[in-house]
């Protein structure tokens, strides 16, 4: 398989996984928690390294999952004891991330794990970091990790589709009819943590946030249907990855960076021309509206 | 048989008691009006019965069983739905949500469920708005959609918090018609209600509440001027056509 193929596939998997999962966050008005989790998982990765003395996939996923949930739990705890929710996110986010940064400096010499890499990632190296069993190479580790997380997320969303939808739209009614609203909340936090850590290596923490939030926010401008929104968000994630790769090759710039920029391009397009809230459409409708009023007087 | 038994319920917000020692039993097949001034704790009472709020003390039984095991037979229309109005969902979808715990986990709504949901929309006169996104409905239309959702639940006991707030007269008639049908089918209905003029027409039982129950029982015994004055603190002089007892006492 070619170099280009693996990079594109990795980018598209990041776009799809983060796009679908992130759309749920956007709908729950919890976009900021994506930002928090995408940083605090660093602590989980460092923690996993301390325990296993290696940087292999599974312990990293578990560590990230645990810290992701802890982030959500701490935010919830602070919030329910009276701290504003954005402040709560800020407090938890910075302290856990800082702890991760401090711990990283202890192991800095032993492995290639540094803050720069964690934040920015490097998708260009993905094809060389392959999953090798008994001397046989099965393709890039990142692709396997992303594929596994995508599968887990899709299964969870399919199984708990109604419950997720209900508890996002009307948590009170959901509670009434017996939906375990809190469990659904932490399930979602787990999905976000897993998506983040699987995408981490390729696009880096900061750009994970773009992939988690922007496709969902874009799809939100384009449809009135929950199901369509999830699909659209995933598709926009994929298209952003592809378009971004095109930019990067064309102008020889950072691949991950271009992918994030591409999500922004799609968002602006939807913002201007979207059928629902599109600024341009509103302008057109607005003027026709005025005309009708004038003609009726 | 009693459909609902509330015993010694107390509820507080931040140490301030909103409800104190509320006890009453509602017979099956009755229609109860919950009456009391603003801030009397009517919404708080319903929410704590449904365990949407933590209670300080007290127990609730629905058909002699704890509420937890009776979720399928309870319908609820909140005072002002605290839903995410911008959520990408339409009126029919919202009504279908009333069927979720009948559909069961991991399954999708069947054709039969969709037909039933459409029927419920039709009963509240909203069939033409089935595919309208919910934020694009008027306040009264939104209220009707949530009534349709409650109807779709096909519950045995209904809690409604001011279902008539913000709906026009013909919708109010349609809703009361619907509730009377429910009653005839043996369903139990509890309604928070503000319009004292219609209490005698609508309800066979009344709960007068002001932090603690002033009186509970059949309308003609409980809905008296003396009780009302106690509940409202003597502020009902503006009533033109008061309850029956009012006429007798003047
Ligand atoms: N979330 C809350 N936090 C603190 N106090 C509250 C809260 N909700 C209600 N209260 C207080 O509890 C009391 C009862 O409120 P509740 O909403 O149950 O009244 P109500 O009878 O439904 O009034 P209304 O007729 O205006 O709907 C009021 O004094 C109110 O100020
Ligand atoms: Mg109320």
From TrEMBL, chain A:
GO terms for cellular component: ATP-binding cassette (ABC) transporter complex. It is found in: Cell membrane. It is a multi-pass membrane protein. InterPro entries: ABC_BtuC-like (IPR037294), ABC_TroCD (IPR001626). GO terms for biological process: response to zinc ion; transmembrane transport. CDD domains: TM_ABC_iron-siderophores_like (cd06550). Its main location: membrane. Keywords: Cell membrane, Membrane, Transmembrane, Transmembrane helix, Transport. The chain crosses the membrane at residues 6-26, 33-51, 57-75, 87-107, 142-161, 173-197, 203-222, 227-247, 253-273. Belongs to the ABC-3 integral membrane protein family. This is Iron ABC transporter. It comes from Virgibacillus dokdonensis.
Automatic annotation (TrEMBL), chain B:
Signal peptide: none annotated. The keyword Transport applies. One of its GO terms (molecular function) is ATP binding. Residues 4-236 form the ABC transporter domain. Gene3D superfamilies: P-loop containing nucleotide triphosphate hydrolases. Transmembrane segments: none annotated. It comes from the Bacteria. Keywords: ATP-binding, Nucleotide-binding, Transport. Belongs to the ABC transporter superfamily. This is Manganese/zinc/iron transport system ATP-binding protein. It comes from Virgibacillus chiguensis.
């Amino acid at each position: 398989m070619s170099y280009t193929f693996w990079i594109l596939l990795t980018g598209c998997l990041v776009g799809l996984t983060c796009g679908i999962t992130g759309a749920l966050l956007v709908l729950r008005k919890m976009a900021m928690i994506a930002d928090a989790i995408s940083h605090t998982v660093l602590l989980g990765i460092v923690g996993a390294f301390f325990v296993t003395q290696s940087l292999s996939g599974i312990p990293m996923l578990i560590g990230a999952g645990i810290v992701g949930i802890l982030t959500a739990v701490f935010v919830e705890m602070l919030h329910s004891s009276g701290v504003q929710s954005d402040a709560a996110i800020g407090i938890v986010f910075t302290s856990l991330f800082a702890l991760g940064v401090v711990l990283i400096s202890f192991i800095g010499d032993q492995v290639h794990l540094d803050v720069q890499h964690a934040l920015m990632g490097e998708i260009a190296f993905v094809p060389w970091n392959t999953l090798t069993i008994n001397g046989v190479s099965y393709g890039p580790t990142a692709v396997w990790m992303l594929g596994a997380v995508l599968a887990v997320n899709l299964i969870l969303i399919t199984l708990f589709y109604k419950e997720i939808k209900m508890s996002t739209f009307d948590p009170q009614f959901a509670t009434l009819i017996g939906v375990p609203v809190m469990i659904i909340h932490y399930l979602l936090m787990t999905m976000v943590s897993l998506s983040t850590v699987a995408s981490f290596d390729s696009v880096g923490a900061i750009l994970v946030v773009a992939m988690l939030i922007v496709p969902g926010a874009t799809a939100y401008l384009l449809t009135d249907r929950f199901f369509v929104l999830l699909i659209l968000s995933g598709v926009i994630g994929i298209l952003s990855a592809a378009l971004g790769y095109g930019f990067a090759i064309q102008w020889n710039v950072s691949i991950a960076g271009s992918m994030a920029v591409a999500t922004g391009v799609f968002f602006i397009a939807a913002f201007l021309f979207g059928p629902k809230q599109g600024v341009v459409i509103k302008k057109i409708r607005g003027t026709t509206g005025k005309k009708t009023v004038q003609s009726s007087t | 048989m009693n459909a609902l038994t509330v015993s010694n319920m107390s509820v507080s917000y931040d140490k301030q008691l909103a409800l104190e020692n509320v006890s009453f039993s509602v017979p099956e097949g009755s229609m109860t009006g919950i009456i009391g001034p603003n801030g009397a704790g009517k919404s708080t009472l319903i929410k704590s019965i449904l365990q949407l709020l933590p209670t300080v003390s007290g127990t609730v039984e629905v058909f002699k069983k704890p509420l937890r095991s009776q979720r399928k037979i309870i319908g609820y229309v909140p005072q002002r739905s605290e839903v995410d109005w911008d959520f990408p969902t339409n009126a029919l979808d919202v009504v279908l949500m009333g069927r979720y715990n009948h559909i069961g986990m991991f399954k999708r709504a069947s054709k039969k469920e969709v037909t039933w949901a459409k029927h419920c929309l039709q009963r509240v006169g909203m069939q033409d708005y089935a595919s309208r996104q919910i934020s694009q409905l008027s306040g009264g239309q939104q209220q009707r959609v949530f009534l349709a959702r409650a109807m779709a639940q096909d519950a045995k006991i209904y809690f409604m918090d001011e279902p008539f707030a913000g709906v026009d007269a013909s919708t109010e008639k349609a809703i009361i018609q619907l509730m009377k049908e429910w009653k005839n089918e043996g369903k139990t209905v509890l309604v928070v209600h503000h319009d004292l003029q219609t209490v005698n027409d609508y309800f066979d039982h009344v709960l007068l509440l002001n932090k603690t129950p002033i009186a509970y029982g059949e309308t003609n015994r409980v809905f008296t001027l003396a009780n009302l004055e106690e509940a409202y603190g003597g502020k009902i002089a503006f009533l033109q056509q008061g309850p029956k007892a009012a006429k007798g006492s003047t």
